[in-house]
Hints:
This protein has 131 residues and is mainly alpha-helical. It has two domains: 16-74, no CATH class; 78-131. Helix content is 63%, strand content 0%. The protein has helices at residues 19-35, 39-46, 50-61, 79-123. Keywords: Coiled coil. This is Transposase.
Amino acid sequence: xxxxxxxxxxxxxxxxxxxxxxxxxxxxxxxxxxxxxxxxxxxxxxxxxxxxxxxxxxxxxxxxxxxxxxxxxxxxxxxxxxxxxxxxxxxxxxxxxxxxxxxxxxxxxxxxxxxxxxxxxxxxxxxxxxx
Length: 131
């Protein structure tokens, strides 16, 4: 019988990621999400938890990961950095909503112009009588 188990080689050392690696993983994860390639597949392949991605995204948005050297400690964001990150995310959501609203208004304007054109052509028909 095989003696191989989950920890056959002994405990594995805890992995740590440099700020550059965290940013690279975030970029690859977001690319996989946008392409529809499967975020879960990327996480399983790399052995990363979704909670790590969430934490790294917060750190990135707060500006904590930028400009750090490999091996340099990445602490928690300050209250100011966390607020900046929160406001950036809020701005992104607002910009997406604005773009969606502008597209809807554009469609409504085109529909209005089309209905006006139909109405004018109907008025020019000889069988159309105004009351």
